[in-house]
Specification:
By secondary structure, the chain is an alpha/beta fold. It is 16% helix and 35% strand. The protein folds into two domains: 296 residues, 3-Layer(aba) Sandwich (Rossmann fold), CATH 3.40.50; 169 residues, Immunoglobulin-like (Sandwich), CATH 2.60.40.2180. It has ten helices and 29 strands. The longest helix has 14 residues. The protein is elongated.
């Protein structure tokens, strides 16, 4: 394996998820409004956003906007740290931490205004997607990491975030892919701040960012590897990896399982922070998920294009794909084996593979090409059309431990064309440890986001949100078992 780079995520960013059963699950205590309807916007929020003609993709990110207001011109330059959180809908800049240079005890809520310009150079006609004032929800005295303190030299400014608050998104989905974009912040002081020495801080205009913090994502290492395929030659793949010994003692546990996540079609490329951030794959390293496994390695490879790319046909995704081939099948497996060999405390009897959409397709491809290698698989809104899966393939798959996840409202990869018939064929073939969770729809489960009083509804393709939050379960031997609990107990 050729290691081309290994660097911190902050450096990258500042340089720019024994029984047969089926569960019908519906978070439907209330009837949700279709996802196409807007989340209600407060008058305060509406007045602060100064863009028009905004187009929003199903990923909830603006891709085009006509600017109608000028950004404020900075007069003084300070520094700020940007904190980006990963949520079910993707990344959001939730706060900025401003260096004041003097110790203070109190800061009023309206002491600062925050202006942002979002730019995506891929959109050649109108690269400025939108610009406007962020809605400030809280300001408090903090330390350099944004933690509240009684006396400190920093002000942390928290801002509104949500699935439709596009001003807060540091990612943009355009032309089939997510990338980090330029988000230029101008933080303008509106009210004087008294220091503990009875001095006055005033007139601050802060434009220089000195750090980016992304909780959980920062705990991953980023690297790349080159593998060879006889047909397609050398292929270099970026990948992110998490080492459980950062949190769990290797002295009390000699071996750890490995969880592999294969991203969707919009997260390919050469920056492995994208599949961690665009749809919350980083949560596989969270304490809530890790505790099921007593600690687990996490490996998130990134396809240079899409996992469905067969290297021959131009249209290789979704309903346009005409076969079950991938140019990455061999090199991806070589990368997995090499990663396992490089970490001798990985338990080779407990290697789990899963992915969503394109990654669900690739999960099925790896199972077919490497029978009995993986202890379990979790295939989410998977993209291998059932008509391309032969009866011989079903015979190979029926002995695998697989949990399928999809939703009735998925119009991208409709369950009746993909997951459901394959699951039915496996059951008829005698599969003993294959499960299906079939959601009625995909909604917000945090209780924070609503439409007309009902839970906010995401695109039906987004069933990966339930996986990352371990909200996938079924009855096994009369007991409710979650996906992560089931997977942690599978061995090869």
């Amino acid at each position: 394996m050729k290691q081309f780079f290994r660097k911190s995520i902050a450096a990258i960013l500042t340089g720019a998820m024994v029984a047969t059963s089926m569960t019908i699950t519906a978070f439907a205590e209330e009837t949700a409004t279709p996802a196409s309807e807007e989340v209600p916007v407060s008058e305060e929020t509406a007045s602060d956003v100064v863009t028009t003609n905004e187009e929003v993709t199903n990923d909830g990110v603006a891709i085009d906007a006509e600017t109608t207001a000028e950004a404020p011109v900075p007069t003084e330059v300070g520094t700020y740290k940007k904190v980006q959180e990963i949520h079910d809908w993707g990344a959001a800049t939730s706060k900025v931490v401003v260096a004041l240079g003097e110790s203070v005890r109190n800061i009023e809520k309206d002491a600062f205004k925050v202006y942002v310009t979002r730019t995506d150079e891929r959109v050649e006609e109108k690269p400025v997607l939108e610009q406007g004032y962020r809605k400030v929800t809280s300001i408090y005295v903090s330390d350099a990491d944004g933690n509240k303190v009684t006396t400190g030299e920093y002000a942390t400014i928290e801002m509104e975030i949500g699935p439709k608050v596009t001003l807060g998104s540091p990612l943009n989905y355009y032309d089939g892919s997510n990338v980090w974009i330029d988000c230029d912040y101008i933080i303008t002081q509106q009210k004087e701040i008294q220091t503990v020495d009875n001095k006055v801080i005033s007139g601050l205009e802060i434009t220089e960012m000195n750090d980016v913090v992304i909780p959980l994502v920062n705990e991953f290492d980023i690297a790349s590897s080159t593998q060879n395929d006889e047909r397609f030659g050398d292929i270099t793949m970026s990948y992110a990896s998490y080492d459980p010994t950062k949190r769990f003692s290797s002295e009390t546990k000699s071996k750890f399982p490995l969880i592999i996540w294969l991203h969707g079609g919009g997260e390919g490329g050469t920056d492995a922070t994208i599949p961690l951030s665009a749809n919350k794959a980083c949560n596989l390293a969270s304490p809530e998920i890790q505790r099921y496994f007593g600690g687990a390695y996490v490996l998130v490879p990134q396809a240079p294009t899409k996992w469905m790319d067969d290297g021959v046909n131009e249209n290789t995704s979704g309903n346009l794909k005409t076969n079950a081939d991938s140019m990455y099948s061999k090199v991806l497996m070589d990368l997995i084996k090499e990663y396992v060999a490089a970490n001798d405390n990985i338990d080779e009897s407990r290697i789990y593979v899963g992915g969503c959409s394109n990654g669900g397709f690739m999960t099925m491809r790896l199972l077919l090409d490497n029978p009995r290698y993986f202890a379990a698989a979790y295939s989410v809104c998977e993209g291998m059309k059932d008509e391309f899966i032969t009866d011989e393939d079903i015979e190979k798959l029926k002995g695998e431990n697989i949990w399928f996840v999809t939703a009735a409202t998925d119009t991208t990869l409709p369950a009746p064309m993909y997951t459901l018939p394959t699951y039915d064929r496996l059951i008829k073939a005698g599969a003993q440890n294959v499960h299906l969770t079939y959601f009625e729809r995909v909604i917000d489960t945090t209780g924070k986001y609503k439409t007309n009083g009902n839970p906010y509804e995401y695109d039906g393709h987004w069933t990966w949100t339930y996986v990352y939050n371990n909200l996938v379960d079924t009855l096994i031997d009369g007991k409710t078992v979650t996906l992560m609990n089931w997977m942690a107990n599978q061995t090869r």
